[in-house]
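Morning, I've got a small favour to ask if you have a moment. I'm working through a protein record and want to make sense of it properly. The fold is given in discrete form, as structure tokens running alongside the sequence. Can you walk me through what the tokens say about the fold? Thanks so much in advance, here it is:
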Amino acid sequence: MKIYNKKRFLSFLKFKRDFQQYGLEKARSYELIIHWLNNKLSRSQFLLLSGILVGCTAGLAGVILKTIVHNIHFFITNKVHFEYQVLFYIIFPFLGIVLTTSIVLTIFKGQDRKGIGAILYEIAKNSSIVSSVKTYSQIVQSAITVGLGGSAGLESPIAVTGAAIGSNFAQTYRLNYKERTLLLAAGATAGIASAFNAPIAGIMFAFEILLTGVVFTDFIPLVVAAVCGSLLSRILLQEDVLFRFYTREAFNYKNVPYYLILGIVTGLYARYFLLVSQKVEHFLKRLQISRLRKAMLGGAVLSFLCVLFPPLFGEGYDTVKAFTNGHANVIIENSFFKYFDLREYTIIIFLILVCLLKAFATSFTIFSGGNGGNFAPSLFAGGSVGFLFAVICQQIGFKEVPVTNLVLVGMAGAMSGVLYAPLTAIFLIAESSFGYDLFIPLMIVSVISYLMAKWFSPISPELKSMAEQGKIFTNEHDKNLLFSLHTEDFIDKDAQTINELASINDLFELVKNGNKNLFAVLNDEGKLKGILTLDDIRPYFFNQENNADLPVTKIMKTPPALIRPENQPVDILQTFDDTGTWYLPVVDDQNTFIGFISKSSILMSYRQVLKGYSDS
């Protein structure tokens, strides 16, 4: 036995020396072990191991962040008297945004790209390579912002942190682009699963938002990462921290009309939420003041809103839990509304104002300098809208209104419309409420809200500006690579041309002396009049004497489409698909002919770029 152990030890020393030859002499012992396993295990086995390690690390990061923020909120809202809470609502939200901005400017050098768009950007434009700084920067920033009362969610920062963990793991062990992207998504999946204790929702999030259009046969790392993140959350987090709802009602098909109406209501609210976000973002961008002053402005607005409406403080999950537990009056006990007569209409007015102002509170939190995402705000707003809808139905006179179920499916509806992620919303609420029998109402509300969102805007307005600049993909991963190509490189400017006044006999001479099978017919000013191919000319080859004086304008064709030099390759390929052709002429704004562009040249360049990413 001693001899065997000695051999294993010597073997370890040998592979350590081998790795030192590859410049890994500063690697830690556990890194050397994983490098060794990478060489010994098959690709599938190592990806499975990677999914476990990334999932556990990202899940632990999520647990730490949730615990920090929960303890801060518990101290402020449960341990402090109302008069002091008002003071805290004035100071802490303001301080949270200002501190976060100051830290970004001083410690992180102004690099504050945040949210799901940051992950998509790294996948699309940076070969899934995420800076190692993001493995901790998002936790620090969001803990300060949301912990001190920022009206945003922790799930997006957790997802970015998990993505950074997965990407840096892949970089450390020299995995290629495809595997980096897979582990990046696995880290984000584990983060979402940890935040909500919902592994299936985490997987849906990865496929529905991060990996849209990307087909992975190796999806097992995503599954194991989600399971690891969820298990850590379940084991380490206290029950009151978990995103769990234990009270609900059985589904009754007679209540379908409620869900149909609620789907429309949440769809309209989601559109309102996104429009407010856009307006606030544009307003803050237009301000000609420093980032620190913007943070002070946003913090002041947020503090004012939190003083008037305490449910806007932080993530707001406790408020939604109060709705589902039948403790609606609790939400106004810590506000000035408690001095009013607690009749039903008082609660209705309070909830309407909370729902309307939540969009402003979240937008000022995020765009003035805080760090957070729209997961929690959309869930909070959806639950509030669902409860408000239920209360109004009861006041109208409807009996047996499924209040709890309307709160739950309202969360799914708003999240589906705000994030454009119906499957994630459906499975998140189903898992969090143990309500798999609610799949029908969840699908009804989420799909209606999502379709309304798509009707207003084909892609999420949050990502639209980045998509227009080619920074992220909209619906296919291929577009990311195509955006790195330049149209100018594919234009054949040596194309053969012929004047519109020329005859077919002149065209025959051009064919004999040239080596092209495509011709542009131009006027004296170089304007494109039509195009010709060898197939168009071939019938006249065998009857040249009778057709010698026939003008080329008699046999030329109008091109099915025209390409401009400023068109993106992705749009050009779509034009090729729409017209069913392989060659199209390129002209400028005055219709002056520039050259021809071929579909095959773009596809060939795309394959070369794709191969470069796969080998990297």
